[in-house]
Amino acid sequence: MSKQVVLTFSNDVATIELNRPEKLNAVGQELADALEAAVEEVAAQGARCAVISGRGRAFCVGADLGGGNKDDPVAAEAWINRIVTLLNGVQQLPCPLVSYVHGYALGLGASLAMAADLVLATDEAQFGFPEVHHGLVPGVTMALLAERVNILTAGEIILFGERFDASKAAQYGLVNEVVPVSDGQSALDDWTQRLSRGSPMAMRASKRLLREMLSLTPKSRMAAGADAVLVGRQTEDAKEGFVAFRDKRKPRWAP
């Protein structure tokens, strides 16, 4: 794996760190390939939860606009398809994924943060989708925003194309919690510990179902939810959860 992404495991928690600090973790082909490989490894190792963060002064300032041939339509199409594949892969990671955002999260970097299930940001974090100021249409970003905010908020974010702080991001619904920089790591550790307590089977199934429900009608959502409950009740984790509750002890989940 490229040194532009660092992957570590500790107590069933995987940490994926973007490691191109001299470029504020701008995403080029090498980093994209390394990030995709890291996500695949996290899935293969069966981590209970995962974190994605950036080393240095930023989470990620977006795509590396200095790389590649921007005037080649074939290369441009290949790059966009590469980004779509990458973001889809991040979203489809089986275990819960937390984006830990500090510094800048701009353009593709902000999209990468949104691709996670939960977003924790430090109070000095800055978000933004500046594509319109570069003559670009943020189509991939819109797909992610459509899952999280209403059309008026999406219009404000996309059409102004301005940066906004973590507090505003939380108001928009793009961030779950904002903490002081000094408390960031302890807050992140608390989140991963809490996520690791749940049944791995139930967490994976719940995450998958949440994604699926975005494309279902209200009536279909109820049916899909009922099916998931019935299937889940037949698993070993469901049986262990009942026994642990009855015996007043912590459950011992299957991997």
From TrEMBL:
Signal peptide: none annotated. InterPro entries: ClpP/crotonase-like_dom_sf (IPR029045), Enoyl-CoA_hydra/iso (IPR001753), Enoyl-CoA_Hydratase/Isomerase (IPR051683). GO terms for molecular function: isomerase activity. Pfam families: ECH_1. Belongs to the enoyl-CoA hydratase/isomerase family. This is Enoyl-CoA hydratase/isomerase family protein.
